[in-house]
Amino acid sequence: MSDGDTPRGSEEQQAEYAALREELMKLPPKRERVKLGEGGRFVIPAFMRDEMGIKPGEMLICHVVDGELRVRSYLDNIRRIQERSAPYKKPGESVVDEFLAERLAMWGEDE
């Protein structure tokens, strides 16, 4: 290599790296360190609440899987249950109407 030569592509690679770094710096971190306070309370960081689509005062569903706390909105949980149970519902079928008819019959009442 002569004095004016640089390794092939190094300027382009550096420019690509700089552009990629700028884009990555705009993204919120996926993990955040939080402190557990009195009564087991912690604050969900704002960017995570935004990503989850939740606001203060909303009901949440929490459960532990393999030692990991999982949190989702109550409404998202209902949506997921509806999606999972949809394949079992027949077209035109009203599960609520069937349930009410069963209960009325069980209680000996007419519809």
Summary, kept brief:
This protein has 111 residues and is an alpha+beta fold. 43% of the residues lie in helices and 11% in strands. Keywords: DNA-binding.
What does this structure look like?
By secondary structure, the chain is an alpha+beta fold. It has a domain of 76 residues: Ribbon (Pemi-like Protein 1, Chain: D), CATH 2.10.260. The protein is elongated, with a radius of gyration of 27 Å. InterPro entries: SpoVT-AbrB_dom, SpoVT-AbrB_sf. Keywords: DNA-binding. It comes from Georhizobium profundi. This is AbrB/MazE/SpoVT family DNA-binding domain-containing protein.
Order of helices and strands: HHEEHH
Helicity level, as a percent range? 40-55%
| Biggest sheet architecture | 2 strands, antiparallel
CATH architecture of the domain at 31-106: Ribbon
GO molecular function: DNA binding
Domain SpoVT-AbrB: 31-76
Protein name: AbrB/MazE/SpoVT family DNA-binding domain-containing protein
Organism: Georhizobium profundi
